[in-house]
Amino acid sequence: MVNKTRNINKELQAMKSRQSFPMVIASFFFFVLSAMAVPAAAAVVEHTFVVSQVRMTHLCKETLVTVVNGQFPGPAIEVVEGDSVAVHVVNKSPHNITIHWHGVKQRLNCWADGVPMVTQCPIRPGQSFTYRFHVDGQEGTLWWHAHVSCLRASLHGALIIRPRHGDRSYPFPKPHKEVPIIIGDWWDMDLDQLDRNMMDGYFADSQTATTINGKLGDLYNCSGAVEDTYVLDMEPGRTYLLRLINAGLYSEYYLKIAGHKFTVVASDANYVNPYTTDIVAIAPGETMDALVVADAAPGRYYMVALAIQPPAPDHQLPFAITRGIVQYRSNVEKKEEESQPGDVIPVLPDMPDQHDNFTTFYFHGNLTSLHQPRSPPVPAFSDEHMFITLSLGSICRQGESCERSGSNESIIVATMNDIAFQPPTAVAASLLEAHYYHRNDMAAAAGVKLRTLPDTPLKVFNYTDSDFISWGPKEARLEPTERGVPVRRFRHGAVVDVVFQSTSVMQSGSNPMHLHGHDMFVLAQGVGDYDAARDVARYNLVDPQVKNTVLVPRLGWVAIRFVADNPGVWYMHCHFEYHMSMGMVAVFIVEDGSSPDTSLPPPPADYPKCDQAEQLADQQQKGQSLAQAKLANM
Length: 634
What we know:
It is found in: Secreted, Extracellular space, Apoplast. By secondary structure, the chain is an alpha+beta fold.
């Protein structure tokens, strides 16, 4: 549910201004020209998200699904750059809930980032919380999703940010229509159980089907009843802006429309130099904005989404594919409410092989940033350097010594620089709260054991040697690892270089790495082991992509640069759900700057509390007084 008043006084004022335009242009031409350059007043966009469980039936099976407002996917949030957003989350489900606003920078607002036990304690069943945030300096397609266990498979939706000067200010031809396209999963199992299985080292589960905008498509049927298919009606000669989102848990996807081309114009709410292609590759967490011109012969065309995976000997997921239909309709047909005959078979596109990992490598490598007047400059130099391996390992179920290589005595985990993230559970406060009130003893205040994320991996080897993929003596020596909460601190304003290196230990797939609260400049990517002496010279410091989710290629690496200028406690993780559940996560802490406008303000009054938090109330009150005194002395 959305509050459509959107700050009524400001809306009425804007309407009045628009209605008086003809008189003003006749009398005060100069002033009108000046006014046209002034953006509309910012609004407050309000939504109410009621999280509950509903029964949905697909493929002859009824499943209890956790959704927002009874919808799958959930409602889209549409705002104008500069607006404020208030989302009232009412939790009527049996699950703890948080909502993450994927890609929203949350400037000086880490409290609203929505990561359980990291930036907030979850919203308990029967409770509510209002997320408030601004959308400044961002335009394009982002999305929101649950950040608890695997619930984002059904709890997600689009977050669309339009230019404050209107759609005529797009740096590309104004589209006839904008259409969100969400690639997702359908699961007919308990998603909490899915998460528990992965944390316990069981990986045999897979989604029942792939969806486009919640529809399974005509490739799926049960007892002869074909599932509903997503249909996009297009008018000949018109241009459409597809806002593409990959909300899937497990897979990167190729997307094609038979007989049509895409012109990619933005990714992760950052404009790119227009890139024309017949195929889009999109990883979990990524968004792409792509123009499609209806310039084919009138007819019906399949839109196909095909999951990508590494070849054997990697563990093979079931073949995952779905398709929607693009069909042409003339104005006459629309008026008569006629559509193309149902017996006209749509044209199928030629799809790559599911094991083709080079097409996505070149697709992502061909995207470059479009320079805009407000584009952030690429820092010429960095202050800190990190080399982070993304790998698998194992821990013993009992004791420090055990059989590995798939033995039941050990649990397979995912790591960053050989440390697997262990989620805080029974803690007194979120990590952010502990950091804010007890910076000198954050670990004790949160009740967790923190580990420093090292700048380089603990194990050095040939990271992309394919001999490490299969279990055996060679890979077994690389398995032993540790669990904890890996943390890396950065001073405010530090320019940080990170090289993410995929490895071949027990798997060789790609890794979509998502950094909360910041965008990253993608300087370079490559296949094989990173070599600074060779690869630094390839860094693009002119027009690198700007991303919040960067795909680290299969058996390869990617170099990114970001400015740590947003104080808070930020999640950095792989957006493959199995990797995140297994521990491919770290926490980046950005310290306060030297002034109030570079320092994290106190939490909101209705900030959710952990069950154990009451005992810290007095300590927090003292900590808040100290924090206020600190701000007063700046």
